[in-house]
Amino acid sequence: MILAALVGVVAGIASGLLGIGGGILFVPALTILLGHGQVEAEATSLLAIVPVALVGSWRQRSYGNLRVHDAAVMGALSIAGVLAGVALANALPERVLRIGFALLLLNMARQLVQRGLAGRRRRLAA
Fold it and tell me: Which of 24, 76, 19 shows the shortest CA–CA distance to 45?
């Protein structure tokens, strides 16, 4: 339990510093460090988003930035997406899910490198 909490804290700090989603770090940590299966790790990561989204929505509403109707539509569509995702995850072999997640990680790494290089080029041009 302590290791899981530590993984969550480290993933949260790293995601805040790097501007990436915590699940990008949390899912591999759950599978490698804690020995969870891919489906269980992804489900745990997605469930961890719920309180963050609720608190974020509440805070943004207090700032006047939340459009309640749009948020309700997004929430309903998210539920439909979750149901479709669960059905797909249960239908696919775990190896396919791991490969798909690995491709997602590679794409995220590519985007981070591209942003870093673009920022460097802007600084050099200035």
Answer: 24
9 and 16 in contact (C-beta within 8 Å)? no
What is the full DSSP assignment across 75-125?
Answer: HHHHHHHHHHHHHHHHHS-HHHHHHHHHHHHHHHHHHHHHHHHHHHHHHHH
Query: Residue written as tokens 């600084």?
Result: 123
Q: Cα(44)–Cα(23) distance, rounded to whole angstroms?
A: 9
CB of 101 within 8 A of CB of 27?
A: yes
Q: How many CB atoms lie within 10 A of CB 100?
A: 14
Provide the residue ranges of all domains of the chain, joining segments of one domain with +: 2-125
Each of the 126 residues of the chain gets a pLDDT tens digit; together they read 788 788 778 877 887 787 777 777 888 888 888 888 888 888 888 888 888 888 888 999 999 999 999 989 988 998 899 889 889 988 999 899 989 989 988 998 898 899 889 988 888 887
